[in-house]
User: Fold this.
Amino acid sequence: MTTIAVNPALNRSTVNPWLVAIAVVVPTFMEILDTTVANVALRYMAGGLAAPVSDSEWVITSYLAANAIVLPITGWLSSRLGRRNYFLLSIAVFTISSALCGLATSLEQMILFRVIQGLSGGGLQPCSQGVLLDNFPPEKQGTAMTLFGLAAIIAPIVGPTLGGWLCVNYNWRWIFLINVPIGLFALAASYLLIEDPDYLKRERAELRHQPLNFDYIGLGVLALVMSCWEIILSKGQEWDWLGDPFGRMPFLVMLFVVGLVFLIVWEMRIANPIINFRVLGDRNLAMSCVILFCSFAVVYGASIALPGMLQTLFGYDALRAGLVMSPSGVSSMAAMVLVGVLLGRQFDARWMIAAGLVAMAAGSYWMARMNLLIGPWQVVGPRMLLTLGLGLIFAPANVAAFKYIPLHLRGAAVGLLALLRTEGGSVGTSMTKTVVDRQLQFHTERVGEFLDPLNPHVNTFLDQSRAFFLQHTGDPSGAQLGALQALAELRLQQAASMAYFDVFWLCGVLSLVLVILIFLMKRSVAEKGEIIGAE
Assistant:
């Protein structure tokens, strides 16, 4: 293995790197926040825009699809436009489109503006990661990834809480309008503080003398594949997956599979691919992609299931459910701070990733062992343990992913990793909806198998319920119906709780299985003076 010294090549700016970090992390936080902040506001939007609630889901789907299309090509756009110029353009368009979303008067306008918002916001994550890696010295790049991780982890956690608070106390439009002042601040700060390093300037100068060679076919197929993917995840359960009687889902799945195979073959054969799949030949990057994809699927899945359970079975409103989940941000921040210290002391990133996966598995198992008699503080503990695990994983996985990637491939690697991380959240959301709906039917049938007249516990419950309703209504017939209804509601409540617990079981098993991938990775220590190598 050979190593490449990066200090001379980067010629880092004299600006304090922490000021640069704040400038790039703020818009990144804002963009990631918008992936979840609108989830709790769909019913409010549907009412405000006079649209069906089921159609309002396209507000989420359109944003995620547009975001996924642009993420893999941010490396190409950065090299052609200049990373600084592309980053500033992304912030400006994202801010304008956020204002337009807040002013939309119809669902069609909202979807259009969300597509523009997703296309512009997709470049913020990879660009901010690249800026952090280039402005911090090698031995502090773990700390830089820790700061980026705070935005990537805390934003989706606080998103539902912030969205619920704004909807309840103000108006759903403020979910988008709040981005405007933050975006203007980020634009001004980035304009003053960010500068492209010399190697990017040289690369851009060389590209100016070369033909454009833009991969139009790759971009078109990518847009088709990611659009099909997001629609499949968003509408799969509603359309009954491959059992869709109208054939929409089977057609989309076939289009996705054929398109993905064609995209991979095409991108591997051309000289200037829009997505450079060759970077996955580095096993550290490949394993980090899988780990982050699955980790975000677990966290997003649990983040959808837990408030759903609290609102459905415990009677919490969106704001109270969000408040119960909000302390988990503290454990994530604590984990990120610890990780920053350990990475700065040349601790192997692989073992921190392993510890994080075990913590996520333990937190998921803890939630799977809950029951319907718990209070809010009994939810806080396992939730904090789960997010603490993600905090231990994020920065080390990024350090391990980019340690052996050459500079000229870093943009492609960052975009691909950001894409898979984002899509992991989409998969986790879809997985939760599907498991809860399917397992609810399964457990309802299983619980009902024991509710028969020969069961003494059933007879005792019905007798006590009849006596209760008779005492309060004086109607024997109504008391009988009330007792049967109470038994049916209890059956549904127990079945729903077990369906939610199945989601947590699945999250725990997946987290534990990922530990195996750690042993396939190479040693990942951010050593002073060298961070990038090639085998």
Summary: The beta strands are 2-5, 530-534.
